[in-house]
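Q: I'm writing up a methods section and want to include an example of the input and output format. Could you take the sequence below and give the corresponding predicted structure tokens, formatted cleanly so I can copy it straight into the document?
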Amino acid sequence: MKVGVNGPIPVIVVDQFGYPTRSAKVAIIRNPQSGYDNDASFKPGREYQVVERSTGKIVKTGAPTQWNNGATDPVSGDQVWWFDFSDVETPGTYAIVDTERNKRSVEFEIDDHVYRRVLKHSVRMFFYQRAGFEKTEKTAGKSWADRASHLGPGQDPFTRSWLAKDDPSQAKDLRGGWYDAGDYNKYTSWAARNIISLLRAYDQHPGAFGDDFGIPESGNGIPDILDETKWGLDWLERMQNADGSLLCVQSLADGSPPSAAKGPSFYGPPTTGATLMGAAVFAYASKVFSARPEPELKAYAADLAKRAKAAWTWASENPNVLYYNNDDGKQPGSKGLAAGQQEMDDAHRLAARFEAAVYLFEITNDAEYTKFVEANFASIVPDWGPSQWDAVGEEALLYYARLPGASDGVKSAIIAKLVARMSQNGDQLPMVIGKKDPYRAPIKDFTWGSNFSKAAQARLYELLASYAPDPNLAALAKAAALGYLNYIHGVNPLGLVYLTNMKVAGAENSAITMYHSWFAYNSRRWSKVSEANPGPAPGYLVGGPNPFYSLDPCCFAAQGTPNFKCYMSGAFSLCRHGFSPPLGQPSAKSYLQFNDPWRANSWAVTEPSTGYQAAYILALAPYVN
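A: Here is the clean output for your methods example:
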């Protein structure tokens, strides 16, 4: 097998974890035509086999089928053949073998529990992202043990206001929560969204989540997903002021490992958007935790309900309180407060208010909330949607449609629109029926965070499968959803599992590096998985191929006309010539296994995010038994 800049260049790609017994199972045979691997040409033989590992038994023989009459797919740059072995349902370990060309795939499992280990490591990502919590050898593994971070002078327990940095009287104890992504900042709205997604996964598929995921709370009789979300909720409670409002963001210093971070922490002011998302997550969490038998969790749920109502009241009385962190153009003096821009536009603020009203209505049965929902439901997803960008809004709409107090007309309208648009919109199910993507995971747009888009699109099909009145349509949607998980698990042009360090779960070729402050480029121990060094912790979903990736202008100066400013900034040492890939590639090959910081800007390709992670867990949960 040839080796390229992203690792081995495979010709047969499969889901490296495996397939549920009764699912669609299609191996992809690839002949690269354009992109960095275009010299790895391959023409498949006429006979393919499914071979059982332990016995060598051939359980299926057949010929591959050419995709689209031999056309080259512009998104991947590949010619492709499909080998369908969906009828192989006996549990076991298998490989796909090209007998004429003497090629074989990596091994994979067929089993109804095939994704359980994958889910465990994916959820554990949130544990590794905990701020202010010790990672012991027992819970994190010897390779990733670290002292509790951001608890020193001027840090999280003593967080000062960004607007009053020199006023200790305004310091707040804002310990806890999760690092949002490869940086260590914490964002209220995004954390709330992640918690809702994680709780939804548990709420709809409780059997997928055990009490044995290896976090400190494991073994306490409560599913670990609830323990983990409670860690995030406890931080959001600290972000809530006495008047019900929620602070919008907390900025933390970087360090590798996290406990090495010594800089101060700062918080941003309360905003309408952050407070609405607080109302939504507190209300929904109240519903989920109130269903538990433990008295302490029922009391916790009651407190969350009070917080949700207080947040709703403040946001209703203060509907346009905005703060653009880290944007001096819109908010003078904000530059430097965290990294991502957390402020919402009007449409997203309406969606947050809508979602909060849905969950508040469920736990209170108060007509104030349902009145707002039914007056605004038609505005949450655009008429041309849903697209990969609308999964969250569609989720909230359909959640309302299942509540007993919702009017029949609104329920019918929500479900009818979903089914019609998903079935007829050319960017939805017709893409699947028309076999638009040879890798069986089509999305409308390949952008920054494409793996998030893949997970979101999978979730849309799962929702369609749950609400479509036609069982044939539901089955088609369910099968389509799994294709996106197969893609993340290795059925892609790189043959790469887009989760880090997943040999522990059976993956032969998973991401070995990513952009992250802990697992930094200059860390010999954590930068990259190797025989000598552990690299990043398992289970992080990286951003994915990004055809809009670009180098910092300093890199072009380093490669061309000398630029004194770039020279003094050290650009020359961080700008490797070319960067192709991810530059100059078909969209699905716009990926490089690198973690170089500014000015190479690897975060646009390999950075993980708790938002990506939560969306992936929500999409994966229906397939975990």
